[in-house]
């Protein structure tokens, strides 16, 4: 079998002097915003795409051209297109009708064969993809491959490679005391838990699983002790917009080293503009909600015994649904509320 290049890269782990001083501990940034697609999704979805390509190569009798299909108005679709294009295959994305033209343009520029607007939400876009678009592709003689944005073991396995890198990159081979990650459908979180098990860190490293209010399907499920389906996503952190978290993520979140955290949109957005000032990195609110824990004493609320030598890794998951113009709009809308909430933690 010929060598296939990975559709994701090893990203830097850098200690932030500025955020460490603000948070009162050693803050390390895992810069997943540098992935080819602009977000951590390159790992999980890239691995899912790569696995399908390898499976095709192991069955030479099936010579149909591969065509990858995803349903996403954001990072998952971008990761699928980027991975498929890098491996020399076609890809298409079905996006909800509400998707802005800038996102559609980005997907096409990244190499999408087609971007199909359909449905009022991701649920209906995904249903149309599975029930109509892929069967039509199969009828044309293609091998249509469905790529789920988060609920797939191949996605979790790809995301787990992040922990392997952190293990190599931590100074002196030290373990972090905690890893902070955002949770949407749970693909990243599930991967981190797999990675911690593999590194034998599962007993020692705490995980803060962070969501925004209005996209907190994991937190609500944990509270009710059963999987909850949200009636709608009301948060501006659209990339966290899974109305129902993956079952595996729900089960993993019940482990003793995991704590669920929910912050407001104002806190997530404020972290985005503060992070841009502090680190010159532009991220979307779905990423900002994790970074927010470094500001205004929030970490001390969720991590006991936090001290100057405590080591906390923030997964800077990145994201494509942000611009300076949009960030300025968030600042106009949320600055007053964010300052009110900052005083709560002070």
Automatic annotation (TrEMBL):
It comes from the Eukaryota. PANTHER family: CATABOLIC L-SERINE_THREONINE DEHYDRATASE, THREONINE DEHYDRATASE, MITOCHONDRIAL-RELATED. Pathway: Carbohydrate biosynthesis; gluconeogenesis. It catalyses: L-serine = pyruvate + NH4(+). One of its GO terms (cellular component) is cytoplasm. Residues 9-318 form the Tryptophan synthase beta chain-like PALP domain. Its cofactor is pyridoxal 5'-phosphate. It is found in: Cytoplasm. Keywords: Cytoplasm, Gluconeogenesis, Lyase, Pyridoxal phosphate. This is L-serine ammonia-lyase. Pfam families: PALP. PROSITE patterns: DEHYDRATASE_SER_THR. GO terms for biological process: gluconeogenesis; isoleucine biosynthetic process; L-serine catabolic process; L-threonine catabolic process. GO terms for molecular function: L-serine ammonia-lyase activity; pyridoxal phosphate binding; threonine deaminase activity. Belongs to the serine/threonine dehydratase family.
């Amino acid at each position: 079998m010929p060598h296939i290049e990975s559709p994701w890269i090893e990203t830097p782990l850098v200690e932030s002097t500025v955020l460490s001083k603000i948070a009162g501990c050693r803050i390390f940034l895992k810069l997943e915003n540098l992935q080819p697609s602009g977000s951590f999704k390159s790992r999980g979805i890239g691995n899912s795409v790569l696995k399908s390509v390898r499976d095709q190569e192991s069955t030479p009798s099936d010579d149909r051209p591969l065509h990858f299909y995803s349903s996403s108005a954001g990072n998952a679709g971008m990761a699928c297109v980027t991975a498929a294009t890098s491996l020399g295959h076609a890809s298409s994305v079905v996006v909800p009708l509400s998707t802005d033209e800038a996102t559609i343009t980005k997907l096409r520029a990244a190499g999408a064969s087609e971007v199909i607007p359909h449905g009022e939400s991701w649920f209906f876009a995904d249903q149309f993809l599975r029930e109509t678009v892929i069967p039509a592709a199969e009828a044309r003689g293609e091998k249509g491959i469905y790529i789920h944005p988060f609920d797939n073991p191949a996605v979790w396995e790809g995301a787990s490679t992040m922990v392997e890198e952190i293990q190599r990159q931590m100074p002196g081979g030290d373990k972090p005391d905690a890893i902070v990650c955002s949770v949407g459908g749970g693909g990243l979180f599930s991967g981190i838990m797999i990675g911690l098990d593999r590194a034998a860190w599962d007993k020692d490293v705490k995980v803060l699983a962070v969501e925004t209010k209005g996209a907190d399907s994991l937190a609500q499920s944990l509270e009710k002790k059963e999987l909850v389906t949200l009636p709608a996503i009301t948060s501006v952190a659209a990339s966290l917009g899974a109305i129902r978290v993956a079952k595996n993520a729900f089960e993993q979140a019940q482990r003793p080293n995991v704590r669920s955290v929910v912050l407001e949109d104002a806190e997530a957005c404020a972290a985005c503009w503060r992070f841009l000032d502090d680190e010159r990195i532009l991220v979307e609110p779905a990423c900002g909600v994790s970074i927010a824990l470094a500001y205004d004493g929030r970490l001390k609320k969720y991590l006991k015994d936090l001290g100057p030598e405590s080591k906390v890794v923030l997964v800077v998951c990145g994201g494509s649904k942000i611009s300076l113009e949009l960030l300025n709009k968030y600042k106009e809308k949320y600055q007053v509320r964010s300052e009110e909430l900052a005083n709560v933690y002070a």
